[in-house]
Write a structure and sequence with these properties.
- The chain is α/β, with parallel strands linked by helices.
- The protein contains 5 helices and 5 strands, in the order βαβαβαβαβα.
- Strands 1-5-4-2-3 form a 5-stranded parallel β-sheet.
Length: about 110
């Protein structure tokens, strides 16, 4: 990324994400299903593995105001870039990912392995 370029998304922490969710933000988790089984998931998140998302982002983006999460915040940043490229502007990346969320003691669910 060029120096001085503004990222097309905001980097936010777990507490901000919690607030965004209460305000109606959509949460898209770009990890793989097995990672949710291992590491847990946010209750109202939609699982869309990054490769699926990148191949057809518009299929999953039916609103602005989207928070992307992954394990540590790198894959979700890529997803944010793609969402911006297809025209969304209210985009948020959970810095530190689900790991940061859990460190704050915030709740996660553990789906059953399929």
């Amino acid at each position: 990324m060029a120096v001085g370029m503004q990222e097309p998304f905001q980097r936010v922490g777990p507490e901000q994400v919690k607030e965004l969710i209460t305000q109606g933000a959509k949460v898209i988790d770009v990890r793989e299903p097995k990672e949710q089984v291992q590491d847990g998931r946010l209750a109202d998140s939609e699982l869309v593995p990054l490769n699926s998302f990148l191949s057809s982002p518009k299929q999953y983006l039916n609103q602005d105001n989207v928070v992307f999460i992954c394990k540590v915040g790198q894959r979700s940043a890529i997803a944010c870039e793609m969402a911006a490229a297809v025209g969304l502007s209210q985009l948020y990346n959970l810095e530190g990912g689900i790991e940061a969320w859990k460190k704050q003691g915030l709740p996660v669910e553990y789906p059953a392995a399929k």
